[in-house]
């Protein structure tokens, strides 16, 4: 299922509409490094990073993948295919208490909904405390249309894409076409994830609670993907003094 999510995120360019949002955030923070928290199997940043490197001032952008449960076996392939522009941290990284030596503009792709409000607020508060810009991004919007896509179109696309996913695994074919556990689990995961997503108003509320001193500038919104689905975001960076 993780292979499928990474494959679809990359090949459909789910997060490409966020390129202007991230471009502004990186220029505001004068950063050329994305620190991806909760990276899972990876895949959220790759296409976005390539697009950002085409823009003036961001040609040397690099990315570091981190997670509380690192997956170096999955990340190694991403590092190799990116020519070393995407690296990873082998040690466990808690998004609520990021080690000070891991600098850069923090990003969380497709994972913020996994955190309950207290933990989500703690993630934002840690960024404020360390003066690190942060962006949280969800590849959908909390809307019935997105759930309908998860139930209908995406399972068909999963069936069509399974044979082309790397690395090739007979077990993946078996649990997709013979006993369809992977598509069923993907439908369940997608539905629950959409229901648990924070709408933009709640994202801003979490940001305000995490930044009681008003040290950061925060923006939240949605942008549209070509498929008609929405991409939800919250970005924040230190205010200019």
Provide a descriptive summary of the structure in words:
The chain is of the alpha/beta class. 44% of the residues lie in helices and 16% in strands. Strand 4, helix 5 and strand 5 form a beta-alpha-beta unit. It is globular, with a radius of gyration of 18 Å. 41% of the residues are buried. The model has no long low-confidence stretch (mean pLDDT 90). InterPro entries: SAM-dependent_MTases_sf (IPR029063). This is Class I SAM-dependent methyltransferase. It comes from Hymenobacter roseosalivarius DSM 11622.
Unreliable segments (pLDDT under 50, ≥5 consecutive)?
A: none
Overall geometry: globular
Q: Determine the mean pLDDT.
A: 90
In the CATH classification, which architecture applies? 3-Layer(aba) Sandwich
Q: What is the CATH class name?
A: Alpha Beta
Determine the oligomeric state from the structure.
Answer: single chain
Radius of gyration: 18 Å
The SSE order reads: HHEHEHEEHEHHHHHEE
In which order are the strands of the major sheet placed?
A: 3-2-1-4-5-7-6
CATH topology value: Rossmann fold
CATH superfamily: Vaccinia Virus protein VP39
Distance between the termini: 45 Å
| Beta-strand share of residues | 15-25%
The beta-strand count equals 7
Query: What is the domain total for the residues?
Result: 1
Largest sheet: 7 strands, mixed
Keywords: Membrane, Transmembrane, Transmembrane helix
InterPro entries: SAM-dependent_MTases_sf (IPR029063)
Protein name: Class I SAM-dependent methyltransferase
Organism: Hymenobacter roseosalivarius DSM 11622
For this entry, give a set of tags.
Rossmann fold, alpha/beta, seven-stranded mixed β-sheet, 10 helices, 241 residues, single chain
